[in-house]
Amino acid sequence: MSAVGIAPLAAVAARQKHLLCCPRPRVWFASRIHPCSHESRLLVAASSSSPSPSSSPSPSSETKAGTAESCVNLGLSFFSKGRVKEALTQFENALALDPSPTEAQAALYNKACCHAYRGEGKKASECLRMALRDYNLKFSTILNDPDLASLRALPEFKELQEEARRGGEDIGYGFRRDLKLISEVQAPFRGVRRFFYVALTAAAGIATFFTVPRLVRAINGGDGAPDIWETAANAAINIGGIVILVALFTWDNKKEEEQLTQITRDETLSRLPLRLSTNRIVELVQLRDTARPVILAGKREVVSKAIEKADRFRTELLKRGILLVPVIWGEEQRTSIEGKGFGVPTKKATSLPSIGDDFEKRTQSITAKSRLKSEVRFKAEVVSPDEWERWILDQQKSEGVNPGDDVYIILRLDGRVRRSGKGIPDWQQIIKEVPPMEAFLSKLER
């Protein structure tokens, strides 16, 4: 469970390689630090007012804090020691001490993490909702945070994510704006179509405005009255055009919402964590261009049978970059993220750079890709099974499949869903459909 807080400069100096500098007159640093591990956490520190790197917190700071900054510092200190209740109190105190926007965002995010750790999904969602709406918290921060896995598996997070997708005054428009940018890339002519829909509808409306009086005169008859059939035909064409154009505009809007929903699911999928055969934990997005994950979800016996059949075609599947990802319904094992221990994995994993936008940029280097490719084997282990199950259940509902059925989902090299089906996949058919990694068609997928 991640915490956002204002760390003392001593703690910041010890983790210089994880810091990101925010350009402000008063210098603030943001990074991410696990209290019990070497992974990073979102922190905020004021270099202009913090003590020197050699100084250490006084004993009195453990019991008293007079500013929002010191409250968040103290709360983070309590949090790192497992004293979640005291940490929660300090974050609440920080919010009551007229904090700056950065301090308020830090306190709210930390407070949400404490509530998530305590299993209070509704309270955690409310804190995140306020941070998104009032303090410009990026939704990607919530998606990236491995310590919020317990919250992301709850219905409250699904509701929060749906609100963020729709946008609004209660939660802000940041996440929806990001989704629409992706949507415009995938459907570049939607804006042009909408322009013509509006322009042609306006033209038809103006024509109808002038045609209706002529139609009335034609019906009344008399000298100089226009031909009734010709006028009625013009009015019918204009009105019919308006109806058709409005229907097309509505249809395009509906398709955009469906696309935004799919992009949201794809984004959620890309942030799901895996443990590779080398015991390294990565997010699915880091395997793009490197592997084609095949998610096998269902009862243990069905998944085991699917893996057993796949092993017969192991060589050919490896040539195609197939990576098996078994997800067993109701699996109670938590391989990496647990509520106890603030996100300390049960299995010791190799040290990783921080996961997020900064890491995504670094993974584009040839060296990083080559190293990751060498670690990918035939099978991976899911981390935080609850998150995986929730995503698969949402995918099943969107495709009209009964939730909980045994299914498989094949992903492309770019991370999007290639196809899915019920039961055990036909591996021979997959070998025929999926080109080898070095083939030209595979390069087009990237």
Molecular structure report:
The protein has 446 residues and is of the alpha+beta class. It folds into three domains: 9-170, Tetratricopeptide repeat domain (Serine Threonine Protein Phosphatase 5, Tetratricopeptide repeat, Alpha Horseshoe), CATH 1.25.40.10; 190-263; 273-445, Glutaredoxin (3-Layer(aba) Sandwich), CATH 3.40.30. It is 52% helix and 11% strand. It has 18 helices and ten strands. The chain has helices at residues 9-13, 68-80, 84-95, 101-117, 121-134, 139-144, 149-152, 155-166, 174-186, 190-220, 228-270, 300-311, 314-319, 357-362, 366-375, 385-398, 427-433, 440-445, and strands spanning 20-22, 28-33, 40-46, 273-275, 281-283, 292-298, 322-328, 381-382, 407-411, 417-422. The strands form three sheets. A four-stranded mixed sheet has the order 7-6-9-10, with helices on both faces. It has a three-stranded antiparallel sheet with strand order 1-2-3, with helices on one face. A three-stranded antiparallel sheet has the order 5-4-8, with no helix packed on it. Helix 2 runs antiparallel to helix 3, helix 2 runs parallel beside helix 4 (101-117) and helix 9 (174-186) crosses helix 11 (228-270). The longest helix is centred in the middle third of the chain and has 43 residues, at 228-270. The model is unreliable at 1-63 and 333-359 (pLDDT under 50). It comes from Anthurium amnicola. The chain crosses the membrane at residues 195-212, 232-251. This is Photosystem I assembly protein ycf3. InterPro entries: LPA1-like (IPR021883), TPR-like_helical_dom_sf (IPR011990), TPR_2 (IPR013105), TPR_rpt (IPR019734). Pfam families: DUF3493, TPR_2.
